[in-house]
């Protein structure tokens, strides 16, 4: 390959980048981007191993609910709002493309886009996901362990989890806790699967071990594993004398703990959870999501519990597609995660009053977010763990999870709980609550069913109930219209329709397509033509591509796209790379594109000069206007000769 750095400096693009973007800086940035950020390099063989072990369908399926149609998979694009799936994933080519917004790429660029990550961060995330250890090399060749911003926090939690597990399973100090778990129905397999452990009563055992391992104590306090003493002289363990349940993020990393006390002491909370930290946010974390995700995708159904112990109990009953919130309300982030991988949500909360209230909150929010939602109810005031212990796993699977209430039936049951329908006031309140809750949310058929049920239970005629429902819907319609009129002026401007492709767009895209896929052709074209592209972003990509060929020698649009940090430029590269081209007619297609772009460049120049000429005439600068007219005539002659 030619020395492209020298060629580029000799070309007319040199002045362009020196004046407008800083050419030397552009090349320097491109060099840095080839293997990520901060002048570090991940070995190419490692990157290739990560690519080969990452199936793009599985990866994107963790973010988007995909349905197979023919050879490809389709889902709702995660990069723009849409109601009809236009996001396609091709297993054969290991590529994704959105026909709506144009987003395209492979597994690495998908992570870069969805997580707003650099190349190195995306590779590190996929390496962790695939169980591949990576090392980076600095500019002087020194080996560096690659870590992210919070790696020390993750490492400390992994160390603590292993330590707690060892104490539970292999020490005399952990025997009491182990017997307690076994009596609760836990097998060793379950204990190991969920990484359950035991923390000693001693105040500083973990603290001292973390110090020996050279962890920074201020960071460990930030991680929530230790607490500073009141006098500021040192630290002590946050968790002491508790059964330890590790909390994992979506990638399976331990990011926190929930510790359950063994004693019945009322002086201490039954459960003690890690505080929120840079790696642990309750509104984002769903317990067991990393293990349930694959089974949820397969079944299309996810079961949501209030507490993580219910999820563990359900797993012992053979339910492998459940998750739980961590002592917090269900959030939009939680629901977005679930909606991407599941068609149906079954909510199962405790049977006490607090459980009913939680189930109603969860159900209302889920319905608002468009999830097909059902609610599994427990008798009495039982929680799932108690029900399974009392009636067995089969009864829980078949009678509770396998027989859930529809949203309508649940709301009716919820409103009826505290009512005595032999009392007139309770009847009126019951009807009001049901209509208030369900009127705007049901289909015509569901409304009819609701009216029939209310009539049968209360003795009120269906006609009267229909009239009341109609009044309620009319009142709501007026309120919604008023709200719409008030907010009309505050609404965001509508999204502009996608710009139609011009002949310049098509020519530049096809030209870039050939240059991305044919290094030898790039050599020949680069020698013969100093100017090719018209649009600035294509010229920028061309410079980066020249640097890429200088470094790697051979075409590889996957690798090249991964080196580009700018998402819009990366999108242009992938769109061009996936165009249909005729390799046998590559020279002719490229020449046609270059010829067309050259003509368009002259046309644009003529238009600019005509505008300048008119401005000169307005300023009575007739000499300048005459010079421009002569230049326009010469340009038109050259255009006619092309």
Helix-strand blueprint:
Layout: H1 4-10, H2 13-20, H3 23-33, H4 44-53, H5 56-61, E1 67-69, E2 72-75, E3 87-90, E4 95-98, E5 104-105, H6 107-114, H7 119-130, E6 135-137, E7 143-145, H8 151-170, H9 175-183, H10 188-193, E8 197-199, H11 205-212, H12 217-222, E9 226-228, E10 235-237, E11 242-248, E12 254-261, E13 271-273, H13 289-299, E14 301-305, H14 308-316, E15 322-324, H15 332-341, E16 344-348, H16 353-368, E17 372-376, H17 384-391, H18 393-401, E18 405-406, H19 407-416, H20 424-438, H21 444-458, H22 462-487, H23 503-517, H24 519-528, H25 536-552, H26 557-562, H27 567-577, H28 586-618, H29 622-641
Helix pairs in contact: 3-25, 4-7, 6-7, 16-19, 17-18, 19-20, 23-27, 23-28, 28-29
Catalytic activity: ssDNA + n NTP = ssDNA/pppN(pN)n-1 hybrid + (n-1) diphosphate
Function: RNA polymerase that catalyzes the synthesis of short RNA molecules used as primers for DNA polymerase during DNA replication.
Keywords: DNA replication, DNA-binding, DNA-directed RNA polymerase, Magnesium, Metal-binding, Nucleotidyltransferase, Primosome, Transcription, Transferase, Zinc, Zinc-finger
